Every structure is written in structure tokens, then in C-alpha cells.
Amino acid sequence: xxxxxxxxxxxxxxxxxxxxxxxxxxxxxxxxxxxxxxxxxxxxxxxxxxxxxxxxxxxxxxxxxxxxxxxxxxxxxxxxxxxxxxxxxxxxxxxxxxxxxxxxxxxxxxxxxxxxxxxxxxxxxxxxxxxxxxxxxxxxxxxxxxxxxxxxxxxxxxxxxxxxxxxxxxxxxxxxxxxxxxxxxxxxxxxxxxxxxxxxxxxxxxxxxxxxxxxxxxxxxxxxxxx
Amino acid sequence: xxxxxxxxxxxxxxxxxxxxxxxxxxxxxxxxxxxxxxxxxxxxxxxxxxxxxxxxxxxxxxxxxxxxxxxxxxxxxxxxxxxxxxxxxxxxxxxxxxxxxxxxxxxxxxxxxxxxxxxxxxxxxxxxxxxxxxxxxxxxxxxxxxxxxxxxxxxxxxxxxxxxxxxxxxxxxxxxxxxxxxxxxxxxxxxxxxxxxxxxxxxxxxxxxxxxxxxxxxxxxxxxxxx
Lengths: 227, 227
Description:
Two copies of one chain form a homodimer.
Chain A: H1 3-11, H2 18-24, H3 30-33, H4 41-62, H5 68-78, H6 81-90, H7 101-105, H8 112-129, H9 132-143, H10 146-157, H11 159-169, E1 175-183, E2 190-197, E3 200-207, H12 210-225
Antiparallel strand pairs in A: 1-2, 2-3
Helix pairs in contact in A: 2-8, 4-5, 4-8, 4-9, 6-8, 11-12
Domain RNase III (chains A, B): 4-131
Keywords (chains A, B): Cytoplasm, Endonuclease, Hydrolase, Magnesium, Metal-binding, mRNA processing, Nuclease, RNA-binding, rRNA processing, rRNA-binding, tRNA processing
GO biological process, one term (chains A, B): mRNA processing
């Protein structure tokens, strides 16, 4: 199987017009080496809107009892750049991105911004190659079960909030965070945090900021306590 | 013809499921008088996303040579609340909005926010009642010619910028604005502005701020000069 065929298999769509796929994967830096190429920015604009509708519709159906505010927050979580970049990695897009040699040498194809743009452009390309229902089915295949995906994201996104809600709901004391260690030079500090509930340690974690370290500790506690 | 039938004629869609139309027109204040009614907030969430895709797609096709930045700005102009409220008025929605007696007594059905919400909810309702292509055709009927609509909006939106571009393009001096009068008490000031090009007065206008007065003057000049 060629590279393109295996990519199309992962995406779940075989392009009738392969130049759309190529354009979707073309980072603007490629125009430096290849002035005639069309980059993926216009397709990204279109794909962003397709994604917006697919998510809105899926959330509208999946949560019939939720108000607009919840649906809007849920959509913003699932449309976040960092999450779309993760989705692009799941589809193994990075190795297919076409960019200038200079940009690739700097690992530009691994950056969130480039991955997010390519993913949205890919959505735009599939839409132009097919129609709305086909594109929607294809995207929903990438996302999998939307409520489950959302739940995982919310947990990953705000572990401290989630741990606090859980301890409150169970009549326990608020989680208490301590930075127990701080190491490394100023520009590359590493923080170690611990979280305890009612004096009992529940998790420890580290990160490049206090917040990151505390969130890492909260994630450990969430797993340990079966939140 | 009933009220509903004439509304459907203006909208360009006859609902298979009339309860969707009713829900789209139901302002949240109606729940005070009618606790069992469903308001239009969820439909508005959905309709906003449908509108986003319809506009993105229309702009993508209408401006094949424009970059993403232009398309995004154009879309934000056409999706602005104040503009959607104007569209709602063109469709004569205000008299059909269902709200509490108290809210209606305060003319809530004439407010931009209520009109924008109803219009977006109406789009969501048409989408649920039909499919994407039908909804798109219906919306494009409301908007009319998209580039022409956009041009009119841009002129209305930024008359000073437009007048300046025009005078530059015609090798003339920059428009020069003067506040010639300022009247009324502090909380209800009224400003009078004049615009001149190369010393020749081209328009005068008034407003509740200097900016508003200058924009009004620029609009007069735009009409006078045939910009």
C-alpha cells in the first residue's frame, strides 16, 4: 500500500480529487521552495466551519437535556487546537505534512499549530470532495463516542476542578496541594507537587510550573480514588 | 393566509414539523408565563453553527483569490449580531416572537439580542426540519448576493476607512474631520462633525459620540462623492 493509500485508510476517505488532499497537507512554508503550490489556509477556514457544525449537531443530539451554555463549553473543549493536534497525531498526519525543508528541520511538522491547521484543512478538503453527511460520518469516526471523548477531555483539562467536585460530592475536605520540591535553573525549573485530602496524601506529580505539577498530582489522585 | 403561512412564505420554508418553528420563536422569558414551553436557546446554538458553515462556504466560493484572513473578517461582518437582527427585521420576525407579557411590554421583541437569537434558532429549526443543502439554499435566499451584501455592510461598518481608501486611490488628500459643535448635558451629548477633503467640505453628520458623528459625516460624503 502506498503512503497516501494508508493515510486515506486511516482517515476513512479515499479522495476522488487527490489534489485536495495534497493542498490540505501543504503548510504555507512550502511556498518558499515551491512558489506554485497552494497552501492549506483557505481549506482550513472552510474545515473549521464544517467541524463547528458537526460538533454542534453531535452535542445537540447527545445531550438533549443540556442548555446552550453546556453545549457551547463542550464544543469549545472538542474544537481546541491542542485537542485537534492530538487527533491529527492519532491519524498519523505529521509525516504527511508538506513543508519547507527549513521548517521541517525545525520539527515544524510536530507543532500543534501546524497539525491543527492540517486537520481542519483536511476536513475542508473532504467536504469539497464529497458532501456534508459524508464528511460528518468521517469526522464522527475520528472522534469516536462523543460523550466519552468529552468526558476524557474534561478530566484531562481540569483535573483539579474535577477532584474538588468529587471530594465535595462525597462530603470530604477540599484537596490540599503542596509544592514539595523545586529544582533546576530558572529557565528550566521543575516543580514537584503533592495533593492530600483531609491530611491523607492521594497523589504526587511534577511539571514545569506549579500549576502543571498540581494538575499532574490531581490526575494521579483521580485515578487512585476512581473518580 | 394565516400569520404563520405568511411568515413561512417570507422565510422560504414551510415546516413539516411546526413545533420546531414555534420553539425557534420562543424567547426564554415566555417560560415565566408558560413553564412547559421549550425556549429557543438550544436551537440557537445549532443554528449559529449552520450559519457559520453556510457563510464560510459561500465566501470560499465567492472569493477564490482571497486569503483566509479576508474570508474570516468577511464572515464576522455577516455573522454580527446587529446584522442578523437587521435580517430578522427584513423577515418581519419581531411580531412573531413569543415572549412573556412583561418582556413584550418593554419592547423586548424589538431588541437586537432577541432578534439575533430568534434568527439563529430559526436556522437551527429549518436544519432539523430538512437537511444541510435545503437550509443553505434558504439562507442564501435571505442574504441575497453575498459579495454585494458584504460590500454594503463594509461601507456601513467603516465609512471613514472607506472614504480614506477612496481618496487615496484617487490621489486626493486625506479626509479631514472637525467636530464643529457639541451640545446637550454630559450624559446625553450630541456631536456635530464635518468632513472635508483638501479644504472642501464633503459632508456633515451628528451622533452621540465624536466617532459616531464623524462616521455619519463620512457616510454623507460617500453618497455625495459616489464612492
